[in-house]
Design a protein that fits this description.
heterodimer; A: alpha+beta; Immunoglobulin-like; 2 domains; 4-stranded antiparallel sheet; 23% helix; B: mainly beta; 3-stranded mixed sheet; 9 strands; globular
Chain lengths: 225, 98
C-alpha cells in the first residue's frame, strides 16, 4: 500500500516537473484547407509553406535565418490512431539532389544562436569635430597658428553594449521552447494535430519544394510553392 | 516574484525595468486599466506597463478586465528583441460580477 502511494507521488512529481511538451498549432477543419494536401487509407495530410515574412510574424525566434518552415497537419483516419514522427518527413528542393530531414527544435535553436553570435555587427558613425586653438608662433612658417580647426572622419565600432540579440544561452533555451511548443506534436495521435517543422535550408523565393511523408511504407507527395 | 497573503503572487514594478541582456514586450491593451499578469503573478495595469522588460524565456501573459473576455498569450522573449502585443479585450458574454 505504502509502495503504491510513493509510486503515485513520484509519478505526480515527475509530471509536475516535466514541463509542457510540444503543443503545435490548431489544425484547420480539414486537410483540404491547406495549400497542399494528400490522402492515403483514410489518413490525410495538409501542408503549407511559411514565407519568411509570415515566419517573422509567427515566431519571435529568427527561424527564417536558417530554415524553411512548413506548417503540417495530420488527420488520422477514424478509429485508427496514427504514429506521427519527424523522421517520416523529407523535403526535396527542385533543382537540387538533396533530400533533407527536419531539424529538431533543439538543433534549430542551437544553430540560430550560433548564427547570432557569429554575425558581425559593425557600426560606422561619421564624426565631425570643430575646435578653436589659440596657437602660437610657428618656427617653420613664421606665422601664428590658432583659430578654428575642423576635422572629419568615421568611427568604426563592433556594436553597442550588451549581448547580440539572440546570442546568449538563455536565448537559445527560449528559442528551443518556442520552436518546440509550436512544432508538430510527435507520437500516436487519434485526433488531428498540426504544427511547424523546420528544415535546415534557406527558403529562397520562387523555388518549388516537395514534401514527402511516408505512411506505412508508402509515400505521400505534396508540392509546395 | 513576490507573494502577498491577500493578493497572491505579484511583481515589484521595478522588476520589469530595462536591463542588460533583456528583451522588450511592448504592450497595448484596451481597456488601458486592464490588469496584466505574467506567469500568474500580478504585474500592474496595462497603462503603466507599456514597456515590459524581461529576461529571455517563455512566459504566459494574460490581460483581464471586468466585463471583458480575458486575453491570454504565450510570449517568447529574446535579448535585444522587441515583441509587440495588442490585447483588445472584447465584451464578455456573461454579465460582470457585481
Amino acid at each position: 500500500m505504502k509502495r503504491k502511494f510513493w509510486t503515485a507521488l513520484l509519478l505526480a512529481g515527475t509530471a509536475c516537473f516535466a514541463g509542457p511538451g510540444p503543443k503545435g498549432t490548431a489544425p484547420k477543419s480539414a486537410a483540404s484547407f491547406y495549400s497542399s494536401h494528400a490522402e492515403q487509407n483514410g489518413t490525410a495530410i495538409g501542408a503549407a509553406l511559411v514565407s519568411p515574412q509570415q515566419a517573422q510574424k509567427l515566431f519571435t525566434s529568427p527561424v527564417n535565418r536558417c530554415c524553411t518552415v512548413i506548417e503540417v497537419a495530420v488527420f488520422p483516419s477514424k478509429d485508427h490512431p496514427q504514429d506521427v514522427s519527424l523522421n517520416d518527413f523529407v523535403l526535396r528542393v527542385e533543382g537540387t539532389e538533396t533530400a533533407l530531414k527536419p531539424s529538431s527544435a533543439q538543433v534549430t535553436a542551437a544553430s540560430l544562436r550560433k548564427k547570432a553570435s557569429s554575425d558581425r555587427d559593425i557600426r560606422v558613425s561619421p564624426v565631425v569635430g570643430v575646435g578653436y586653438s589659440t596657437g602660437g608662433y610657428d618656427p617653420v612658417t613664421g606665422g601664428r597658428g590658432g583659430g578654428l580647426e575642423r576635422d572629419a572622419g568615421v568611427i568604426v565600432s563592433d556594436g553597442g553594449p550588451g549581448p547580440k540579440p539572440g546570442s546568449t544561452d538563455k536565448d537559445r533555451s527560449a528559442m528551443e521552447t518556442e520552436l518546440s511548443e509550436k512544432g508538430l506534436p510527435e507520437g500516436t495521435v487519434a485526433a488531428p494535430v498540426a504544427g511547424y517543422i523546420y528544415f535546415p535550408v534557406s527558403n529562397k523565393k520562387g523555388t518549388t519544394k516537395v514534401l514527402e511523408y511516408t505512411l506505412n511504407g508508402k509515400k505521400m507527395v505534396l508540392t509546395l510553392q | 516574484m513576490l507573494w502577498s497573503p491577500i493578493w497572491g503572487p505579484y511583481y515589484d514594478p521595478a522588476y520589469f525595468s530595462r536591463g542588460y541582456g533583456r528583451g522588450e514586450v511592448r504592450l497595448s491593451a484596451d481597456p488601458k486599466t486592464a490588469a496584466v499578469y505574467v506567469d500568474g503573478g500580478y504585474a500592474g495595469t496595462a497603462d503603466k506597463l507599456k514597456n515590459i522588460w524581461l529576461d529571455p524565456g517563455a512566459y504566459d501573459l494574460s490581460v483581464t478586465a471586468n466585463g471583458r473576455e480575458p486575453f491570454k498569450e504565450r510570449i517568447y522573449v529574446l535579448s535585444g528583441k522587441s515583441v509587440k502585443i495588442v490585447a483588445k479585450l472584447s465584451e464578455s458574454k456573461d454579465k460582470p460580477q457585481p
